[in-house]
Amino acid sequence: RYHGLELDANEFRVASASPVPNATDLSQWAQNGGMWSRALRIRWSHLLRFEHTGPVVLLFNDGGAGLLTGASPERNVVFLKSADAPDDAEAIAIDELRLSQVWAG
C-alpha cells in the first residue's frame, strides 16, 4: 500500500518447502509486483539509519511480520506497524531490547 503499490496475495508463489514464507520468497514476490526488494540480514544499528526511508518489512521469529516505518537514532528506537494495520494507524516506538525478543535480524 505504500508508494501507490499493493501486492496481490494471489500472485505469491512459495519456492521453498517451508510452511512459513521466507525472506527470499517475499522479496521475489515484491520484485514481481514492480517494487525494489532485497532479502538480507540486518543489525539494529543499521535499522536506525532508516530514519527517512520507505517501509522495510521485518520478519519475526514466530513467522509474523511488521513494517518498519521510521527510526529515531536520538531516542534509540524504531517505529513499527503491524503488516495488516490500517494506513492511518500510528507506528509504535520499539527499542532494541523489545525488538530483539521477536526479531533476529
Helix content: 10-25%
Work out the strand percent.
15-25%
Q: If you average the pLDDT, what whole number results? A: 85
Number of strands: 4
- What sequence of helices (H) and strands (E) makes up the elements? HHEEEEH
Kindly, what is the distance between the CA atoms of the first and last residues, rounded to a whole number of angstroms? 24 Å
Q: Name the strands of the widest sheet in spatial order.
A: 1-2-3-4
Sequence stretches where pLDDT stays below 50 over 5 or more residues: none
Summarize the structure.
It is built from three helices and four strands, in the order ααββββα. It has 105 residues and is an alpha+beta fold.
List its traits:
single chain, 105 residues, alpha+beta, 2 domains, four-stranded antiparallel sheet, 3 helices, 21% strand, globular
Give a topology summary.
Elements: H1 23-32, H2 44-47, E1 56-59, E2 65-72, E3 77-82, E4 92-95, H3 96-100
Antiparallel strand pairs: 1-2, 2-3, 3-4
Description:
The protein has helices at about 25-30, 45, 95-100; strands at about 55-60, 65-70, 75-80, 90-95. By secondary structure, it is of the alpha+beta class. It has a 4-stranded antiparallel beta sheet with strand order 1-2-3-4. The longest helix is centred in the N-terminal third of the chain and has 10 residues, at about 25-30. The two termini are about 25 Å apart.
